[in-house]
Automatic annotation (TrEMBL):
One Pfam family hit: HisKA
Function of the molecule: Member of the two-component regulatory system NtrB/NtrC, which controls expression of the nitrogen-regulated (ntr) genes in response to nitrogen limitation. Under conditions of nitrogen limitation, NtrB autophosphorylates and transfers the phosphoryl group to NtrC. In the presence of nitrogen, acts as a phosphatase that dephosphorylates and inactivates NtrC.
Taxonomic superkingdom: Bacteria
CDD domains: HisKA, PAS
All copies of domain Histidine kinase, residue ranges: 135-355
Annotated keywords: ATP-binding, Kinase, Nitrogen fixation, Nucleotide-binding, Phosphoprotein, Transferase, Two-component regulatory system
Enzyme type, top EC level: transferase
Protein name per UniProt: Sensory histidine kinase/phosphatase NtrB
Amino acid sequence: MTPASLAGLDLLASAVLVLDADGCIIYANPAAENLLESSAKLLQHQRLTSLFLNGEKLQQMFDQAAAHLFDDKRQDLALERMGREPLQVNVIVTALDQPETPVLIELRENVQLLKLHREERLLDQSEANKELIRNLAHEIKNPLGGIRGAAQLLEMELPERALAPLREYTQVIIKEADRLQTLVDRLLAPHRRPHIVGDVNIHEVFERVRSLILAEFPNGLTIKRDYDLSVPEFRGDKEQLIQAVLNIAHNAAQALAERIANGDAMITFQTRVARQVTLAKVRYRLALDLHIVDNGPGIPPDIQHRIFYPLVSGREGGSGLGLTLTQTFIQQHMGVIECESRPGCTDFRILIPLP
């Protein structure tokens, strides 16, 4: 193959590699450079199998193609790499009628499998978070009551003419104990409150949240409706869903402080129906596909992968509980929540199965 004949492969979105008779790479398109995280110059003349810890699977496919045992062959593989995540790819090996370049290999990321693995990690993380929260909350609650009670008894023992600072100290202890008690109650709230199921119209949920947000931020903020009115009603806990959407929208509004001051802040509520969706290894014919999008500065990169962890907040003074509770509420509806964020666009996506 000449460089001119390979030029068209540069435009493909999937990774393409052309190998010589020894199984060495003589051509890699830009998509292959991105996927393999290496330049074409460094990839050239390397044996493809040497790039992966389990390269023998590719070697077997190469040998068969070079021997013209098939014209093309497809296989899903997890290609393991030293110190990095395995590549989940669909491999297409094609035999070429070129003695010098007998094999072309195309690598396509297996998006569905990657999504499934990501959901599994989120579910495992969520279960671990819930267990940690319950244990931590109960461990805090018992001594907290004792601290508050001791402070009250101490205040009662102070003489009537005790110095004002002494009474202030006991009041500080009591108020801080009450604040921590409120925090613990919020941590335990999703596990205490019963899941009240009824018919839910998701647009009523969004309209309720919209009115609450605009009441708090009446100037400089626009909340755009992008509704699919054909979305059906479903069975769910309306109050939980209102709280889940409100937590996200309120965080967005607070992050938009500068844009609100400039008068160009925007939050978009979008509703759609997704088809043939897999959630937690279960295939659903239909699912509610919700997006809450803002044009704020984005979530700091260092906490993006931890935003659903308890007590993690990107805002000074934030409790770091809102998104943790939101995740719990969505999971109680058998759904998942994801987030993609960059400066100028933060998109929270909620998927909930429909009957």
